[in-house]
From TrEMBL:
Pfam families: MptA_B_family. The keyword Transmembrane applies. This is DUF2029 domain-containing protein. Keywords: Membrane, Transmembrane, Transmembrane helix. The chain crosses the membrane at residues 21-43, 49-69, 76-95, 171-191, 220-238, 244-265, 272-295, 331-350, 381-409, 421-440.
Length: 454
């Protein structure tokens, strides 16, 4: 009897110990849900600065939820995580895109291809496409009379496929949420292989960046991230060439996935580059009737329009110019230097002797952060490429960048406008500070372990 009583007491004690983190997690979920509920109305009433404040606060709470999730029993935690995560996405889906009109171009590109017309041939306002215009999609397309599509071929395949089901923003967003379901599944699989709690998936599932940029705005980066993670999972579990093909497909949605190759390639292995080149050529082949025009608006004005070719929107170069002034040829010099840095870091990752999944993902995470720093994207959805790593790696720099990216939601349409270089300075300055702090902590930990003085 005494033994049974002790066992019962032990079970009650464990239940009480687990209840506190569970209740706290549920409380945080309720607060994040409350913030999400008011965000669209706050945006309409007070502008994008209210949106930024609410989403950043939700991101900070997600960090706390991630710490707590590791202490909650898996069954209870997953019900809680998925319940809130799915409910929040359904809610965001109810509103028209708040901060971007890109999804209307996706639907348009799919419609154009459905009419057997190359989407890289005409700008939407061209008279050759007049029979495709409607009152729901066409009036909301951006750059309607100045730009053919910018999106690479795998994105175009996706647009065509989805619009054969339905030519609407809702259908496109549901398809992108399907991509996100793949991403969440792969995060959990990778966590299992890393022997880390699968409940860490809350870091992605409750994160405000994918919530608003996929469920609400419907950015095709969701497809890029899903293919990138699938390729990584395939490659890191023993099928490098197959994984490389999938990552190549990811790169042909958005090229920000390209640095990931360094995590699965081995120097002097020529098969992988050849396979990737073949995949790229095959994907572009159906659109080759327009020649170099198949590279779309990217080579016909986007780099200039976004201030990249002149260097004004590249944060490290802008900081350099602030100190030393602008000089002729500094953009070219910066591009060469940035390319050399990325190549050097990529080769360092490829040559690493630690082939464990945990180490490889950490290296890829670092390389993607470096890429984002050097390229300094102007919009928050470009940072979706890093969001799975808040769950997989959970490093301070990754959290800083993924949450700080929400600062780039600032729009010109509102009276109180924070200059983009100010927000980028906060974002990337925060990244550099987080890197420095992480390096210092690592050094101090190693010093403590070895018993040596600094």
């Amino acid at each position: 009897m005494a033994g049974a009583a002790r066992r019962q007491f032990g079970r009650l004690a464990r239940a009480a110990n687990n209840a506190a983190p569970l209740h706290l997690s549920a409380g945080i979920g309720v607060v994040i849900a409350g913030m999400t509920l008011v965000t669209p109305f706050a945006f309409e009433a007070y502008g994008d600065n209210a949106f930024i404040a609410l989403t950043i606060a939700a991101g900070l709470l997600t960090i706390v939820a991630t710490r707590l999730a590791e202490r909650v029993p898996i069954d209870h935690a997953l019900w809680l995580i998925f319940g809130f995560g799915i409910a929040l996405r359904i809610y965001a889906l109810l509103f028209d895109p708040l901060l971007s009109s890109d999804i209307y171009r996706y639907v348009w590109d799919g419609r154009v291809q459905g009419a057997d017309i190359n989407p890289y041939r005409y700008v939407p306002a061209d008279e050759a496409l007049v029979f495709l215009r409607d009152g729901a999609i066409f009036p909301r397309i951006n750059r309607v009379d100045t730009a053919v599509t910018i999106y690479p071929p795998v994105a175009q395949f996706f647009f065509l496929t989805v619009t054969r089901i339905g030519e609407s923003v809702t259908v496109m967003r549901l398809a992108l949420l399907g991509c996100e379901a793949v991403t969440v599944s792969l995060i959990m699989l990778l966590l299992q292989h890393m022997k880390r709690p699968v409940t860490r998936v809350v870091a992605y599932f409750w994160h405000p960046l994918p919530l608003w940029e996929i469920a609400n705005s419907g950015h095709v980066d969701a497809l890029m991230v899903a293919l990138m993670l699938l390729g990584l999972f395939v490659a890191l579990t023993g099928h490098a060439l197959r994984g490389a093909v999938v990552i190549a497909l990811s790169m042909l949605v958005k090229p920000f996935a390209a640095p990931v190759f360094a995590g699965i390639w081995r120097p002097w292995d020529l098969k992988m580059p050849l396979v990737v080149i073949a995949a790229v050529v095959l994907c572009y082949l159906p659109y080759s009737s327009v020649g170099w025009g198949a590279f779309g608006f990217l080579t016909q004005g986007y780099l200039s329009e976004e201030g990249i070719s002149a260097g004004y929107e590249i944060w490290p170069l802008s900081v350099w110019r602030l100190v030393f002034g602008e000089h002729q040829g500094d953009v070219v010099a910066y591009a060469v230097l940035a390319a050399l840095i990325l190549v050097f870091k990529g080769l360092s990752v490829a040559r690493s002797s630690d082939h464990s999944i945990t180490s490889r993902l950490a290296d890829i995470n670092m390389l993607l952060l470096l890429t984002l720093l050097l390229l300094s994207p102007n919009y928050p959805w470009y940072f979706l490429v890093i969001t799975p790593f808040v769950a997989l790696c959970g490093s301070l720099p990754t959290w800083v960048v993924s949450i700080g990216a929400l600062l780039l939601s600032e729009q010109l349409d509102w009276d109180f406008y924070i200059p983009r270089m100010v927000t980028k300075s906060i974002l990337f300055g925060g990244l550099l500070l987080a890197w420095a702090l992480t390096t210092w902590r690592t050094r101090m930990q190693r010093t403590a372990e070895t018993g040596l003085s600094p």
